[in-house]
Amino acid sequence: MPARTPLLAAALALCGGAALAGPAPALADSIVFVKDANIWLANPDGSGQYQVTTNGTPDNPWQSPSQADDGTIAAVRAQPNWAPIVRMKQNGEVINEIPVAPMQRGPFEPAISPDGTKVAYEHVFTNSFETSNDTRITDVTGLTSPNVYGHPGSGSGSPSWIGNDRIFVGDYTSAGTMVLGQPVVEWWNDWDHAGRFRESEDLNDGEVAADGTIAFVRGDRDDNTIQLYRSSGLASKPEPTCTLSNPSHGPLGARFSDPTFAPGGGAMAWQEGDGIWTITLPRGACEEGVPRLTIPGASEPDWGPASINPGPRPQPAPQPQPRPQPAPQPQPRPQPAPRPAPRRATGCGALSGAKRDACALRAALARCQSGPKRKRAACAKSARRAAALKACARKPAKARKRCVATAKRRYR
User: Which residues of the chain have pLDDT under 50?
Assistant: First the structure.
């Protein structure tokens, strides 16, 4: 099993390396997650797994489930783009769909508030100045204008909630909070801990536990880390405590993502390449815990206080039986009109996939060179940014988000 930190490695050695023998979290609450393209629930020790949705497919999986304190789940699907945010019960019964405004990509990472009244989510947009991501907040009863609750601004993403009226976001190397309806405030920057880390990293997937423990994924590439911090409140910068490192390999590489705390902050779950891991945090000190692979093959966990109590699944309404119709009388079969010869695609249209994108980029760059000299550089940057984002659209959801972030930094 990969060692997370030197202190954790020592703890595992004292336990004979048997990570699975570590104490399991309590069973009063539940973890919602994705497995086999569908949404599932499980007890924190991985037992009692219950399949919430049944219509997910590899081509159109369910993604990013989160749960309110009462067990209500909010999630999205991969297709179509601009898809609604779906709110459902634990048994998979859809409560309602929340439409979202047209966007270039998304919505991603929907996070339902603890009281279940609002959802924060991330999207990718393009305007005349930039291609970037931002965070939006909406009521669960219908799409809410950004003017109502405000938004943290370009670069923010992976929102989570601190209570019911404040969101927590990462914005490149900055960690920020925003009270609904007020401007975003930087809590700290990764550069503030330059003495601890060799270089700064982007901060993603942040979570704040009830006991003041904070978790952030540092970095958006293979062999990233989960960094834990101890906070004494929003008025002071938190201090790094310990680091989870050396994630296991999986289909999307060797990466950590989606740390999520137990309701009281005494335990944490996260995703690695081989599934969902958990660790108990005695007194908030991760160096005293023992990580364990709790739900193999699962991803995107969210830990909530509701127990698993789905009730019976909704039954489909009976379909009326059609009345028998008299047999139709035979009609003379019309002769089909001759089909026109198909038009053969030429130029970039004759290509497909990456070759077509490369051809389109060359054509766009040629057009930029024929334009006014003072606008050529900006035109070329815009063309390369659009081509990079088009290539990102063909990647899986998690890789797509990292790809967009990389393109955004490269073509600012």
Answer: 1-26
